[in-house]
Write a structure and sequence with these properties.
Length: 333
């Protein structure tokens, strides 16, 4: 994957802009020991009318929902965070980027109860290309069924996008890569298909789009929702079903979906070719539809693009020797 982590000099931290190098946390922060953070992944695309963020408010609603589930009182409204996200992109003068809101618990509590640990909210952005490799969107990837399962309902709240949840996903990803695959597919505790390590999953069979039912083992992805709605717009039947493992091998098409992965075709699972072993027509049709909307090549009937206002913030970088910060126009309401 291509990620230039040093090309965006400004990070938004609790209403002020700090330099990338100054965004540091203490080793005794609660998040370091217990994984107590929430985050989002959002893409801003280059369009003919300038940069535009894809489904910004929906991502921020989920961010605030994750905070509520984990009893985090961030103190920022949806509107304040939205304005701050747009300002962060403008301040870094990026035409396209990946945007990462993150809230974490800092130094305070030494034990599991995090109430004594203060909350810190950051907005970070950087250029990031295709998540699973530069050719993945065109050629597809090889995946495997992981030996690690997703959690059972009422163990982790899977509708919260929380940092600690992704230890499970890391095990899947590392195992897949070690065995020569690009990505892993996770099963539920009962052995049914759940999702990828960090993506939702779709199958195509006999012209219909099939997605595993929301069963408490997976995240309800915003890209997943977008594709379901676009498929309906295109007249493609959509079915929400329980999916047994063997259905992966007999699917006509298979693809991952997610903000980072976008629409990535899967050409094989456990070295069994999917369909003809290359991206299928419905996969490519939906890939073109969602990226067409996101990149401004198609109309936006659902109102998913949020333009980044030109000149939302000045480009001046504070001098390093003064360790300066710049104050955002967004303040607590």
């Amino acid at each position: 994957m291509s990620a230039d982590l040093n090309s965006a000099p400004f990070i938004w931290r609790e209403g002020t802009f700090i330099r990338w190098a100054d965004a540091q946390i203490h080793v005794m922060s609660h998040v370091v020991h217990y994984g107590s953070s929430i985050f989002e992944g959002i893409r801003c695309y280059s369009t003919p009318e300038g940069p535009a963020v894809f489904r910004l408010r929906d991502h921020l609603r989920r961010f605030l929902g994750s905070a509520r589930i984990y009893r985090m009182e961030l103190g920022w409204s949806l509107e304040e965070l939205e304005a701050a996200c747009l300002e962060t992109i403008a301040r870094n003068e990026l035409d396209a980027c990946y945007l990462r809101p993150v809230a974490l618990r800092g130094v305070g509590a030494a034990g599991l109860n995090p109430e004594a640990s203060p909350l810190e909210t950051y907005l970070i952005c950087w250029p990031w290309g295709a998540y699973l490799g530069e050719t993945a969107l065109q050629d597809g990837v090889d995946a495997c069924v992981s030996s690690w399962n997703r959690p059972a309902p009422n163990t982790f709240p899977t509708q919260a996008k929380a940092g600690g949840h992704y230890m499970n996903a890391q095990l899947m990803k590392m195992e897949a890569v070690a065995n020569g695959y690009a990505e892993a597919i996770a099963l539920t505790p009962s052995g049914l298909v759940s999702e990828g390590s960090g993506q939702n999953l779709f199958l195509v069979r006999d012209g219909a789009l099939i997605t595993p039912r929301m069963d408490g083992s997976m995240l309800s992805g915003i890209t997943r929702d977008s594709l379901i709605r676009l498929a309906e717009d295109e007249g493609i039947p959509v079915r929400h079903e329980t999916v047994p493992r063997e259905a992966l091998y007999t699917a006509d098409e298979l693809f991952f979906s997610g903000t980072a992965a976008e629409v990535t075709p899967v050409r094989s699972v456990d070295r069994i070719p999917i369909g003809e072993g290359r991206p299928g027509p419905i996969t490519l049709r939906l890939q073109d539809a969602i990226l067409g909307v996101a990149k401004g090549r198609r109309p936006d009937p659902h109102g998913w693009r949020t333009p980044v206002p030109p000149g939302a913030a000045g480009p001046d970088t504070p001098p390093a020797e003064e360790n300066a910060t710049e104050t955002s126009e967004v303040t607590r309401g």
